[in-house]
Design a protein that fits this description.
Jelly Rolls; eight-stranded antiparallel sheet; 3 helices; 33 strands
């Protein structure tokens, strides 16, 4: 009996142990499946657009001096939006992205934009929108930011600027006689009255600006509004550019594509200039006021998306691609040449630098804080005595010496292409000697606005010539 009882007890224990093991196994299985499901869902959610509401938990807003500001959300043009005054930046908190897709709606009269892959406040990629240049070849702009410079003159069309059409709406029409009321400066009472008759109100401090012979702009900082008066064959039309435009930007590897209104065909695809690294995201506003809404982002780190590479032309060997660059110095206007003698004596402080694939030497890549000048030098070897043409573009002031003789001393021409730097901006003649020729340049950047500091140069011919 004892044996039977023991056997029954043992059987019950074994069964209970088996049931307990089964329950534990099932529990572990459920936990594993739940964990796998959660990870799958997380991966799935990571690959979906994530909305980025304008809260203090998501964004940090600073002014142009870097002082933290409150997050100013307002109702603008029927949407709740983030308002960024002139020079303000909104940084996305606690998140960095390398490859991503971002969408948003924007209104900004001049240069609202997106900063991305930010390494710090002075180094990032930037794409911005000239909404006042709608339908023009410079409506979109890409620039790499090195050491805080904003080199919009160095990076230009057709590679780094592109045309795009932003949303706008026609407000009213006026007879041709309204032209009599258009005068530069503070808006006149008579023009305000004519506009008010059509239901369009402006403050007494609004500014009137001539854009071209058929277009006038009216800006009102007090009311966050502006408009264009455009002349047609029969009348003047008043257009409101402060209308939401939908933007999509895709960044993958060393490429970025920008979509405006049409989300299927990009208006611009560029090869990025900075290293491919994850960094911060920022909404930025350079001038006047800008508004952002409906911001969402998707991480593309899974590598499933690529951007088709545009065909790139091989840079001609005629470009001067290798330079020696000096340390930065403050140019003495009355003793520049003697300064050069002293700088050249200390050859160990110079370093070798190369241009980018476009032949452009952006000095801000190598030297921070655009205040002062640098010297650049290279050597040209000629088989015989000959004259060779050299084409150059630069920002902002350049002195050229050939074999210790000054042959060029000039400031950039802001009238040509609004100061954009192209290799054919200036031309000069090099009287080369047989043998070694020392080409030396003193380049001063745009210290006033700390924006552009660079040069691009090429020779007309290479016959009988060798460059270092």
């Amino acid at each position: 009996m004892f044996n039977n009882t023991f056997e029954n007890y043992q059987s019950i224990v074994i069964k209970k142990d088996h049931i307990m093991r089964t329950k534990i196994y099932m529990l572990l299985l459920c936990c594993t499946l739940f964990f796998q499901f959660s990870c799958t869902q997380k991966r799935k959610n990571d690959n979906q657009m994530q909305e980025l509401p304008f809260t203090q938990f998501q964004w940090n807003v600073v002014d142009k001096e870097g002082n933290e500001q409150f997050i100013d959300t307002v109702e603008y043009n029927d949407k709740i939006a983030l308002h960024l005054p002139k020079g303000h930046i909104a940084y996305l908190k606690n998140k960095t992205f390398k490859d991503f897709e971002i969408e948003f709606d924007v209104i900004g009269f001049v240069m609202p934009g997106l900063g991305f892959r930010g390494q710090d406040k002075e180094n990032y990629e930037l794409i911005y929108f000239r909404e006042n240049s709608s339908n023009k070849k410079d409506a979109l702009q890409y620039i790499p930011i090195f050491n805080g410079s904003l080199p919009w003159q160095l990076y230009n069309y057709p590679k780094y600027e592109a045309s795009a059409t932003f949303m706008e709406e026609k407000i009213a029409s006026f007879p041709l006689s309204i032209e009599n009321y258009l005068k530069m400066g503070v808006i006149s009472d008579s023009l305000r009255l004519k506009l008010k008759e059509k239901g369009v109100g402006y403050s007494p401090n609004a500014q009137v600006q001539l854009v071209n012979e058929k277009t006038w702009g009216i800006g009102d900082a007090e009311q966050f509004k502006g408009s264009f008066l455009r002349k047609t064959a029969t009348n003047w039309e008043l257009w409101n550019p402060n209308v939401w435009s939908h933007i999509k930007i895709i960044v993958v590897g060393d490429r970025a594509s920008v979509y405006v209104l049409d989300m299927e065909v990009p208006k611009m695809t560029v090869k990025l200039k900075r290293d491919v690294k994850a960094g911060d995201i920022s909404l930025r506003n350079q001038f006047f006021d800008a508004f952002f809404t409906n911001v969402s982002i998707k991480d593309l780190g899974d590598g499933t998306l690529s951007i088709k590479n545009n065909r790139e032309d091989v840079l001609s060997d005629n470009y001067i691609k290798k330079w020696q660059i000096s340390p930065k110095f403050i140019k003495n206007e009355n003793g520049t040449l003697s300064q050069l003698d002293s700088i050249q004596e200390n050859d160990a402080t110079w370093k070798s630098v190369e241009t980018d694939v476009d032949g452009l030497l952006n000095v801000s890549r190598f030297i921070g804080q655009m205040k002062g000048s640098v010297a650049l030098k290279t050597t040209i070897h000629s088989e015989s005595k000959q004259d060779v043409g050299m084409h150059i573009g630069f920002a902002k002031h350049l002195i050229v010496l050939l074999n210790n003789e000054v042959i060029f001393n000039k400031e950039m021409d802001m009238e040509k292409e609004e100061g954009r730097v192209f290799v054919d901006n200036e031309s000069l003649n090099l009287n080369l000697l047989q043998g070694k020729n020392n080409l030396l340049m003193i380049l001063t950047g745009d210290e006033q606005y700390q924006q552009n500091w660079g040069i691009i140069a090429k020779l007309d011919k290479l016959k009988g010539i060798q460059m270092d």
